[in-house]
Amino acid sequence: MSKMSWQRRGAALVAAVGVLLAGLSAPSAVSAATPPTLDAFYNYTGSTPLADIAPGTVLKTRSLPYHLVGLSLPLTATQLLFRSTGALGQPTVSVTSVLRAPGKFDSTKALSYQSFYDSLNPADEPSYAISGGLTLGGIIPQVELAVFGAFVLQGYSIIIPDTQGEAADFAAAPEYGMVTLDSIRAASNSPATGLTKSTKIGLLGYSGGAIATGWASALAPSYAPDVNSRLIGAAEGGVFVDPVHNLHYISGSTVWAGVLVMAIIGIARAFQIDLTPYMSAYGLTLFTKLQKASIATVLGEYPGLTWQKIAKPQYAQPESIPVLVRVVNLLNLGSQPSPTVPMFIGQGANGVIEGTSGNKAGIGPGDGVMVAGDVRTLARQYCSSGTRVEYTQYDALSHVTSVALWLPAAITWLDQRFAGVAAPQNCASIKPGNSLAPIPAP
């Protein structure tokens, strides 16, 4: 099939999601879902210590209808509580939801879809939205059927992990990756899903979902070689690479500046470090206020907020805090080994140098929140390691508007990988980007 035919097919599948939604338009009454903090399903109560249980082991299982804005649809969701691993390597649990389309079902193929729910509140995670929960911060998982619905139409199972774990560790990127891989293990281990340990898996994620997709791809060979051998490829867009570059980039931004505080809270929570001694009085106020914030509640709420406003004068740059430097170096995706599976990477670069320190940091333009030069360098690193990479840069588009071009292309690319078509690569045409070298300790 020609590339143009595959592109038309991808666009047609995206359009057909509307038909899927229309076909599922006989919802039942609104559910009264129990929040995760009160729902016993989210807690492991077994007698065997978690440390003695293998990652990916299913601990609890339940089935329920898939919910859209609290309304029950005729899509079955199997939810699994499973053992995983936290940012510090400690045993943890998380929940994944496995969707199975009505009628048509292909047990040989599944899509692991990583949501961009981006929240510090466990009540905003996809599993709660799928079970019928409604929160303002959880609005994103409520609409993501429109993103992965094209695969439901083809009979694929959809695996949707709560990538940030039970504590909602926003920005703790390695944890996202391990939870994603253990979610695939759990879905394959459970007889309730119809999947097996030979089911082929594709990864798909944008923005926060790209954090999980990218780290899962990079960690799979070492952390989950059993999963890595079944991955057909990973498609990601709006990619987060170097945390310090992003902190500089969004500092002073009109729209994205509030995410700066969210990231600091999430990192401190996941790695159990105390960053409050470095904060100004205003920074401490925001640190307390935003403990359960989500991307949906902070965007545009703190225009012009800078790092310098939340930190004490002697810590005027993130690089001046030793404990933060240690952690953000661990969070730099560019420091990880290259994936061994094909990658499709899309990144907006509409010429925006956000905030007040983007120019000073010399990191160049991006999509408003992610830095294009970082993503290009990451793609080039992958290429130099032998990974087949198809990189697309949307020079005129922002983080939000890039999705309209990225999604049909990502669907097409994954369709080709599932069909056994050799992965394309355009490594020679990817322009140089920024240095991703670790930050020297202060």
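(ticket continues) Second input and output from the same batch:
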Amino acid sequence: MERTKVVIGMSGGVDSSVAAWLLKEQGYEVLGVTMLHWGEGAADSASDFVQDAKRMAESIGIEHYVLDFRKEFRDCVMKHFAQEYQRGRTPNPCVLCNRSVKWEALLKRCRDLGAEYVATGHYAQVKQLPNGRFTIQVSATGEKDQTYALYRLTQEQLAHTLMPIGTYSKQEVRELAAKVGLMVADKPDSQEICFIPDHDHAKFIQEFTGKTMPEGNFVTKDGTILGRHSGITNYTIGQRRGLHIAEGHRVFVTEIRPESNEVVIGESEDLFTRQLVCDEVNWMAIDGLYGKLENFMRVRAKIRYAHKGAMCSIREVEEGVVVCEFDEAQRAITAGQAVVFYQDDYVVGGGTIRHSGPFTR
């Protein structure tokens, strides 16, 4: 009897390694794929994470492939990241990478190899709802839940996706790895943005674009000049460190104005608002609200990865454009970040925050 074939993305970490082991134990024919995303030169194929993934595949007893997607990653993710910061926005590169690079690459490899599914080591669960649509459900371990970064996956992608560790906690995954002899059981999790290991976003953007962002003015919301900033790519909404402004109390970045090259400084209370507008909306659990008799829904929305979520009402005012009104004001709603809508632990959909405040045409 022919086994169902699955292609799994392997990063050399404990999550994807345990996911691959679980799939093999469940009777699938598993093929491991490691994707090169960034870096220069052929030496990357011998990097630590590639070698760890190769060793894990050998330990589990599955085939392993290395695919070079650095050009796609550079053109789609890194370029977008730099452009968004130059526009005064704060993007989330993982959201774009998941849909446009990782899943696209895995699905292509899946079809090339005659596989039916792709799989990953994400802490999330793929579910098909009674209405026939696919969505993702929060994982069993809340602190590691990764549904926020997956909201842009399409129905086609979800229909061919398996996430085998979504019902496990991180501790359970590590314990299982140790039990079955996977040497990465204690390997630390990767942190922050993979292509900016030193966390210096402004330096990366300067090196990537070859452009030095000009200095400009720190101003109050009414235009009073407070000092000079070192380029808008150094700042994000809600930031208070590294401002070097002697106001005698804590002040924060409350707005970035790329058209005038100004960074607006204000008080903590200036960061709170009850409304946001998002666009580039991707619906999962439903096929949208625009044009429906009831163009309104109550959801819990997350405005950043670490946000716990807050109750709000959403309306789709134009196709792909949603207005979100929170029951209580939220802090530091940031243009460029994702907002993801949940009902009953399922992802309803989500979009990219255009701005805080009311909708205007």
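Agent notes: DSSP finds seven helices and 17 strands in the chain. The mean pLDDT is 92. Closing as not reproducible unless the customer responds.
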